[in-house]
Structure formats: structure tokens, C-alpha cells
Design a protein that fits this description.
The protein has helices at residues 3-24, 67-81, 109-113; strands at residues 28-35, 38-49, 54-55. The chain has 114 residues and is an alpha+beta fold.
């Protein structure tokens, strides 16, 4: 699919994003549109620094906060379902460099997800 084929959809998407940002008070956003073959479009919106009026760019870094925990848990649970990891095995079985000196039992993946 060419960029020309996507132009009307991208125009509507840009309008929608700008409307939602305004309505929700979102200062900055980077949106990537992809398909199985790769990147189709990158839209940058707003300011990465409001005080300096620095525009958002494709390389603007965002702090993800705690959402990464959910993604990690989902990925680990998928690996468990595939039989590739044991949730009750010591973490050090998978990350040999992860060593905790303790008089207690080894830390398991289950412990970390709980």
C-alpha cells in the first residue's frame, strides 16, 4: 500500500488525534501506523516541552511508568502457556546473573508477578 493510498485515512486519523488531544488535554503524542511489512506513517503531535514550545518529534522519549509491568506479565504468561518457562522456578534459572543472597527460598517468577 502506498502513502498516496493512505493519505485520506491519515488525514482523518490526524484530525481525530488532534481532537482527542484537545479534549483530553494531552500535550504530546507520537503515533506509528504499521502493517506486517513495516512502518507506513509516523504522526507527531503537540509539544514535548510546553514551556519551551519544543515540538514533539519521532524521537521524543516518553516515560512508560507502570504499564511495562503489565506487558511483562502478559509476555511471561504467554511463555508459561507455551511451556517455555516454569513460573515456580527460580528467576536465576532464566537470568543467571540475578543472584540474591538470602536465607529464604530463591525468588521465583511467580513471586515477582505477585
Amino acid at each position: 500500500m502506498s502513502r498516496l493510498d493512505l493519505a485520506p485515512a491519515i488525514e482523518r486519523l490526524d484530525w481525530f488525534v488532534r481532537q482527542r488531544m484537545s479534549h483530553e488535554g494531552i500535550p504530546s503524542l507520537v503515533l506509528a501506523l504499521t502493517d506486517r511489512a513495516g512502518l507506513l506513517h509516523v504522526g507527531t503531535y503537540g509539544y514535548s516541552d510546553l514551556a519551551a514550545k519544543a515540538p514533539t518529534t519521532e524521537t521524543t522519549l516518553y516515560e512508560l511508568g507502570s504499564i511495562g509491568k503489565s506487558f511483562t506479565a502478559m509476555a511471561l504468561l504467554q511463555l508459561k502457556d507455551e511451556g517455555r518457562i516454569d513460573m515456580h522456578a527460580p528467576v536465576s534459572d532464566y537470568l543467571p546473573w540475578f543472584q540474591v543472597r538470602s536465607r529464604f527460598e530463591p525468588i521465583t517468577i511467580h513471586h515477582l508477578l505477585s
